[in-house]
Amino acid sequence: MRIDPVRTAIYALPVILAITLVLARDVAAGRIKPRTDPFGAWLTQAGDAKVVVKPCGAAICGKIVWLKQPIDSATGKPQTDDKNPDPSLRTHRIVGLQLFLDMLPSTSNSWSGRVYNADDGKSYDSTVILLDAARLEVRGCAGSLCGSEIWTRAAR
Hints:
By secondary structure, the protein is an alpha+beta fold. Helix content is about 15%, strand content about 40%.
């Protein structure tokens, strides 16, 4: 039996249109709300770490929960915060490390505070912006020099 793609599309179009209208109606009526919070798991732009963002009182917290390379190739042990300026913290594991510091709401979809960068052991003035339900911009600044990356929502 041969399936005619044009005929199939003609029959499917009313069903697709009906589903779209129902979803649009439910969004407009407030029964389905678009995601407007940053809570959940995020994959960094490089794809080398996963960070879970959750509420911490009035602030948001972001903790590393997964690394693509969890073992340090030089030591054969779990990666640690070896660049931290505080020698007593250099043995803390990267998995479990808190990245967002005092990250408080600044607008309905952005938070400002500081972000810790384990790559150099420094923290930077930071803004986190929820661009849409699937993308989070993390921006860090040292004086007037700023950099940012886009994180994508991931499964926990």
